[in-house]
TrEMBL record:
Catalytic activity annotation: 2 GTP = 3',3'-c-di-GMP + 2 diphosphate
Gene Ontology biological process terms, A to Z: cell adhesion involved in single-species biofilm formation; negative regulation of bacterial-type flagellum-dependent cell motility
Cellular component terms (Gene Ontology): cytoplasm; plasma membrane
SMART domains per record: cNMP, GGDEF
Annotated NCBIfam families: GGDEF
Annotated protein name in UniProt: diguanylate cyclase
Gene Ontology MF annotations: diguanylate cyclase activity
InterPro entries: cNMP-bd_dom, cNMP-bd_dom_sf, Diguanylate_Cyclase, GGDEF_dom, Nucleotide_cyclase, Rev_trsase/Diguanyl_cyclase, RmlC-like_jellyroll
Localization annotation: Cytoplasm
PANTHER family reported for this sequence: DIGUANYLATE CYCLASE DGCM-RELATED, REGULATORY COMPONENTS OF SENSORY TRANSDUCTION SYSTEM
C-alpha cells in the first residue's frame, strides 16, 4: 500500500499545476483526487523502466493499474491504433469487474513510469469500506466502456458503408468498362461488330475449346456501292449499308458473328454442319440483299452483292483461311460480281435466281 508522492518541484509550481488540474475537466479515464486517494490507499506501487511490459495481449489479467507518473502505451494489434495514456489514467480494470479476463491489449511503459496496482483483494476492501466511491468509479467506467463499444459499432457501420460505396463504384466502373469495350467493338452505323470485334472473336475461337460444328466464313461486299453514294447521296448510301447489315444479321444464328468490316464490306462467321449449309447462308444473304428496294432519283434502286467464302481450317492461322475467302471474293468481283463463290464446294460461281437478277445497281443508276 502507498500514498501518491508529490513531484520534486517547487511548492508554487505544484500549487499552480494543481489549480490548473482542478479547473480542467477530467478525461473519461482520469481519476479525481478523491478517487486517486481511495485507490492509492489500497494499492501497491510498481516502478517501470522504458519498454517494460505491464501485461501482454491475451494474458489472463488479475489487476487494474493507475498511472502515477510517466506514460503507458496500449497496443491493441489488429491494425487498431496504439493509445498513449498518462498520469491519473486507469487501465486494465475489466479484470476486476469480470474476473479471469483476457487482456485486449499489451501495456508497455513508454517512459519511465510508476503505476498503482489494484488487485482483487484491494478491490474487495474498497467494496466494503468505500462503496460510494467504488460505485461512482464503476458507473464512470461502464459509461466509458459502453461509449467505446458504441463508437466501435459506429466505426464498423461507417466502414461497412464505405466498403459498400467502394463496391458500388467498382461495380459501376466494371459496367462502364464493359460498355466501353462493347462500344469499341461495335460499328456505329449498323450496330454490328466491327473489325476489332471480328479479330477478338477469331482469337477466342482459335484459343477456345473445339466446337461440334464447323466454322465457315463469308465475306460480303456490295457491288458498285460508290455509285450509289455518288448518284443517290450519302444518306441513301447509309440506309443501304444499314439494310444490308440487317440481312447479314438475319442469316446469323446466336452463336455466329455478323460484322461490318468497314465501308461496304461485311463478314459472317457462322457455325454450320457442312459446306452446303455455308453455301445456303451465302445464297440467303445474296437474294435478301437483292430484294431490298430504296428510293433513287431515277426509279427504285436495287443493289447486289458479291460473296467469297470457305470453311475455316481452325488448325491453321486464321489469316490463311481469311485470305482464301478474300481471294474468292476478288474472283467473283472480277467476274462481274452479283453472286457467290464458296471455296471447296462443288459449285463454282453462283448467281441469284433469274427472278432476282432482273436488274442490278449498275443498270438502275445508269443515266
Ligand atoms: N454512305 C456511306 N458510304 C461509305 C461509308 N463508308 C465507306 N463508304 C463509301 O463506300 C465506297 C466504297 O467504294 P469501293 O470500295 O470502290 O467499292 P464499290 O464502289 O462497291 O466497288 P466494288 O466493290 O468494286 O463493286 C466509297 O465511296 C466510300 O466512300 C459509310 O459509312 N457510308
Amino acid at each position: 500500500m502507498s500514498n501518491l508522492p508529490t513531484t520534486p518541484s517547487s511548492a508554487a509550481a505544484d500549487l499552480a499545476a494543481n489549480q490548473a488540474k482542478a479547473r480542467a475537466p477530467l478525461l473519461p479515464r482520469e481519476l479525481s483526487d478523491d478517487e486517486l486517494a481511495v485507490f492509492a490507499a489500497v494499492s501497491t506501487r510498481r516502478d517501470l523502466d522504458v519498454g517494460e511490459i505491464v501485461f501482454q495481449h491475451g494474458e489472463v489479467g488479475r489487476c487494474m493499474y493507475i498511472i502515477e507518473s510517466g506514460e503507458i502505451r496500449l497496443e491493441f494489434g489488429d491494425d487498431l491504433p496504439d493509445k498513449l495514456i498518462g498520469e491519473r489514467t486507469f487501465f486494465g480494470e475489466l479484470t476486476l469487474f469480470i474476473g479471469n479476463h483476457a487482456r485486449g491489449a499489451t501495456a508497455i511503459a513508454a517512459t519511465p513510469a510508476t503505476v498503482h496496482v489494484v488487485d482483487h483483494a484491494a478491490f474487495e476492501q474498497l467494496m466494503l469500506h468505500e462503496p460510494r466511491h467504488l460505485a461512482h468509479f464503476m458507473r464512470r467506467s461502464f459509461s466509458y466502456l459502453v461509449a467505446s463499444e458504441q463508437q466501435l459499432i459506429a466505426n464498423q457501420k461507417r466502414r461497412n458503408e464505405d466498403l459498400l460505396a467502394t463496391l458500388n463504384s467498382l461495380h459501376l466502373t466494371q459496367s462502364e468498362l464493359a460498355a466501353t469495350e462493347r462500344l469499341v467493338q461495335t460499328d456505329e452505323l449498323t450496330n454490328l461488330c466491327n473489325r476489332r470485334g471480328l479479330y477478338r472473336f477469331l482469337k477466342r475461337v482459335q484459343e477456345g475449346p473445339a466446337m461440334d460444328s464447323a466454322l465457315g466464313l463469308l465475306l460480303v461486299d456490295l457491288d458498285q456501292f460508290k455509285r450509289i453514294n455518288d448518284h443517290c447521296g450519302h444518306a441513301i448510301g447509309d440506309q443501304v449499308l444499314r439494310a444490308a447489315g440487317q440481312e447479314v444479321l438475319s442469316a446469323a444464328a446466336a452463336s455466329d458473328l455478323p460484322c461490318r468490316l468497314g465501308g461496304d464490306e461485311f463478314a459472317l462467321l457462322t457455325y454450320v454442319a457442312n459446306i452446303e449449309e455455308l453455301e445456303m447462308r451465302a445464297a440467303q444473304i445474296a437474294s435478301a440483299i437483292r430484294s431490298l428496294r430504296f428510293p433513287s432519283p431515277n426509279q427504285h434502286l436495287r443493289i447486289s452483292v458479291s460473296i467469297g467464302g470457305g470453311m475455316c481450317a481452325l488448325d491453321q492461322p486464321w489469316a490463311n483461311w481469311y485470305s482464301e475467302a478474300d481471294a474468292a471474293l476478288y474472283d467473283i468481283k472480277a467476274r462481274g460480281g452479283d453472286g457467290w463463290l464458296i471455296l471447296g464446294s462443288n459449285a463454282s460461281v453462283n448467281r441469284p435466281s433469274a427472278s432476282d437478277s432482273a436488274a442490278c445497281v449498275a443498270e438502275q443508276i445508269r443515266p
